[in-house]
Structures are given as structure tokens and as C-alpha cells.
Amino acid sequence: MSHAYRMVTRPPNEPLPKGEACLVCRRKKKRCDGVRPVCGKCQSSRGGSECVYEDGGLVTLGSVGVPAEDATLVPPSPIVEFLNNNAGMGLNAADFEDPFAFDPTTLSESDMQVRFRLIFVSYRYEIGICGPLSKQQAIILGDKSGTFVHPFYVDFAHLFGCLIYQRKSPIQSFKPLEAGFFRMASESLAAVKESEDAFTYAQAHWLMAYGYLTQLHYPLAEKYLESCVRAVERNPAAFLPHLVLTKGPEDAEISEQSQDRTAFLASLIYYRTLLRIRVRDAKSGVPLEEPVNWLTAHNAERQLRILEGSSGGIMNHLDAQFSPELTGIYPHLFKMCPPMIRAATMLLALDSSILEGSFQHQALWFERTRALISKLRSHLDTLTDMHTQFSQAGDADGCLSLQCCTVIVLTHLALNYNLLGKHSMNTATVDDQTLCADTVNDLATVTQELRNESSMRRVHMYTGICWKKALSLCRREMSELILKHGITTGSSGYDPVAPHICNMKGCLLGHIALLTQAHQLHCALCFPSTLGG
Fold it and tell me: Do 228 and 87 belong to one domain?
């Protein structure tokens, strides 16, 4: 007898068996009518989001069933196994480590399926997700923390943006994985209360938004993403980094957790902004199957207003983490800064794509970019002062951490000068070019000091991750420069209108070389086994 038939023939007042109620009603001990995909209680209290049911070995979202998984059957190294089995798809370990090494919009449907599956496997194996089952899997696989989520959000973010702007139809190749993502998110939604674990609650809504976005279901995607943002706004203490750290064995764990949550918050604010703009353009008549036209002047003002709140929030967090009052705090704090700096940089890049098509807004964009550069320069001065204090106190670890953070700040300075140069061909001032040259020189000096640092093995692993991401960003910026301005490596082919662009290319090439050497040294000292001798 089918489930639907039983539901129709049951008398109205007959209590529903516990096993047939949705998980939300079971947890809240409410009487469930068992209607699928949305029961009556959830329809009235949750606005129509699909219910989660459990039917003897199947966890279902609405009417879609997924076999329940046995955590003990998870292979010991799924990432390596998966890469080996899909070598013909052009994916390798380097692609996994560097999500910016390729452009997802150029992938075929089959290649996109492989990429999604790789993220899916890495998400469950390397990071561990928010449901009880995933935590169990993480423990079985040897991940004692189960909290390191930053690579997941960086990798997803790249595909997230492409889905919003580039894809013309739902990703059919995602179908085999779609139910799994929905199941994991819905498990968390059913099992976790916002008042008990706001971070997990927000993560689950983020996953639901992503699942709907893959099907180009923008209204529901925005709904879940907005719920995620609201959870952040209602429970800021659950997401903001810990600002008071102590010297002790627990420092690394606290720092890592704070870094993860900061990265999550930055990603969330940035991509909520993108999604809002996309939905509002769709409502105003832009077809969903076409990318947003960023260069229409009549949309620039409206899009800028949407951006304003998010960019302001990013900068407030950036200021808080670099506050001069924090100079006495152990420098683990500064390992949490790069995600926010990077998010602010991306927001300015988004500003530029909106403003460059409208002449009257050019001055505003230049003003904003120079304002961010000024902030970063002042933060660099703060780092220099702190380095002097730690050096006088004989704190070698503190000095090393500050030097690493200085490299990161300088990297983002160079990227922002690059953005400024690309969009101000004839208006870049002598001061802009001088500051750019000073930044690259500072970067070379500090990176060289790090290369000569004998205590490099004590650097936290996250430093290596930051270097790698910064290196990827630089390579991408270089590609854009070459494509946009026709810059070559020889003496000919330079654009005489923009000599500072050519200088930037040389600066970034030198920067990439130093960054690569520093990253290789870091790997050799901290992870010698990964280099094959």
C-alpha cells in the first residue's frame, strides 16, 4: 500500500504513527499530517520549505529518497581515489588545492559533474559538514576537529558566482549529487536549533540555497540565503572571531575556529550581494537565462545601493580586526584577517564592473579604491609597529606571524593597485605609481626575510594556504592584464597609453616568483613528506 494512499484513507483524527511524521514535527513533538512535500505544520510555520522524512533506511526531502549511508563504509582516502579514477577529465591534486586554476564556465557538462563530485567528496572527507552523520564520518576518517571549512567556501564560492551569472540552464549533471546535498542540509535543519548552534544552523541554510541555485530556482535560493544571513545578524557572537586570545596550547584551535567563521561570514555577505542583484535584475525584466548586464547606466545606482550595505559590513569587520587597541594581543589574531581583506578586494572589483560602464561613476570608484588602499597601508604600519614590539620582547613566533600577515596585506595592496591601474588608464596619478612601486618593494623585502627565516616550520599551516590563494589571484590578474591590454613579455607590443600597466606586469611577475619560492620553502619545512623527498 503506497504512502500516499494511506494518507488519504486515514481518518482525520487518527494520530499519525511516529515513524511517518516529518523530522521537524517529531523533534518539536507536534502532530504531523504527513502531507508531502510540505506538511501542514511546516507550511504554516516555515513558509512552505520542504519537509524531511525518514522511511526505513531512506532519508527523503519531499518525495526524493536517498539511501541512508553507513559511515563505516567511507573509503580511507576518497579524494586520492576519486582523482585517480577521473584522471582523464583533466583534474589533479593541484586543481583541488587551487580552485582558481581554471574557469568553470568553460567546462563541459561532464567535466562540471566531475568538478562537483570532487567538491562533494572533499567537503565530506577533508572538512566534515554540519550534520551528526558527517561528524561521525569525520572522526572515523581521523579529523578530530571537523571544523576547518575555509577551503570549502573558497572553492564553492568560485562555482557559486558562475552559477549565478554564466549558466543558461540548470546543471543536469548535478542531479546524482543534488539529493545528497539536500539530505545533508535538511538533516541539520531538522536536528539543530538556531538558539543552540547558530553556526551549524546558518551552514545548513547556505547548503539549501546552493542546492536550489544549481537548478536556477532563484527565489528559494534567495530565501534560504536570507535566512542564513538573518541567523548571522541575530547571533553575531557565534560567527565573529574571538578577539581575546591567550598564550597556550589552545591558541591554534581557537584561531582556526575563528578563521573558519570569519571566512564563512565574508563569503556569505559577498555572495548574498551577488544573488540579490541577480534576482532583482530578473524581476526587472532581465531574462534568467542571460547574464546580468553590468554596464547599463540606469542599473548602476540601484546596484550600488545594494552593494553599499555589504561592503560597509566587510570594512567594519576589517577595521575591528586591525584595531590599534589590539596591539597587545598574541598575533594568532591576524591569521583571521585575510578572508575579510580578500572579500573587501572582491567587493571593490565588483564595484568596478558596475561603475566602469558609466562615466559619471568613475570618480566614485577611484575614491573607494584609494580609500581601501589607504586603509591597508595604515594596517601595514600597525603591523610594522607590532613587529618592533615583539622583536624587542624576543618573541620570535610573534615576529614570524606578523611577517606572514604583512606579506598577505602587501599582496592585497598589490592586487588593489592592479585594479586601480586597469580602470584608470589615463588618470592614474604619479602617487598611485609610486605607491605601487613601494608596495612591491616592501613585499619583496618581507618575503625575502621569510625565505631566510630558520624557524619557518613553526608557521601555522594557514599561512601556506593564504600564500597559495594570493598566488592564484595574482596569476588570474596577470591573465586579465594580458588579455585586456595585449601586454607581452617582449619589448614590443606594450600599450603606450598605459606604461604603468606594463610596470605592474613586471611587478606582479616578480611578486609571483617570490611568492612561489616562499610557498615552496614553507612546504619543504612544514610538510617535507609531501614533496617526495
Answer: yes
Q: Which residues make Cβ contacts (< 8 Å) with residue 60, sequence separation at least 6?
A: 36, 52, 53, 54, 66
142 burial level (CB within 10 Å; 0-12, 13-18, 19+):
exposed
Residues 24 and 173 in one domain: no
Last residue of a domain, one of 22, 45, 66: 66
Choosing from 227, 251, 275, the residue where a domain stops is 251
Whether residue 242 sits in one domain with residue 102: yes
Q: 274 near 311, Cβ under 8 Å?
A: no
pTM: 0.43
**Strands, sheet with 52-55, edge to edge from the N-terminal-most edge strand:** 52-55, 58-61, 64-67
Tell me the C-alpha to C-alpha distance, in Å, between residue 267 and each of 148, 152, 166, 270. Answer: 15, 11, 19, 5
Residue 74 and residue 61 share a domain:
no
Residues 44 and 167 in one domain: no
Please name every residue paired with 60 in a beta bridge, in sequence order, or none if there are none.
53, 65
For strand 64-67 and strand 52-55, is the pairing parallel, antiparallel, or unpaired? unpaired
CA pair distance 390, 460, nearest whole angstrom = 18
Give me the number of domains the chain comprises: 2
Rounded to whole angstroms, how far apart are CA atoms 222 and 211?
A: 11
Q: Which residues span the domain enclosing 34?
A: 3-66
What is the residue-level pLDDT of the chain in tens, covering all 533 positions? 333 323 333 444 555 665 677 777 876 777 787 777 678 777 766 554 556 665 543 334 333 333 333 322 233 333 344 444 444 434 444 443 333 334 444 455 555 555 554 444 444 333 333 232 233 333 322 333 333 333 344 344 444 444 444 444 555 544 545 555 666 667 667 777 777 777 777 777 877 776 776 666 777 777 887 787 777 667 766 655 433 333 333 333 334 444 455 555 555 555 555 566 556 656 666 554 444 443 344 444 554 455 455 555 545 554 555 444 433 333 344 444 444 455 445 544 545 445 444 444 556 656 666 666 676 667 667 667 767 776 777 666 556 555 655 655 665 565 555 555 555 544 555 555 565 556 555 555 655 555 554 443 333 333 444 444 444 544 454 445 444 444 333 333 333 323 333 333 344 444 444 444 434 433 433 333 332 22
Q: At what angle do helices 251-283 and 297-321 cross, to 10 degrees?
A: 170
187 in Cβ contact with 132 (< 8 Å) = yes
How far apart CA 370 and CA 59 sit, in angstroms, is 52
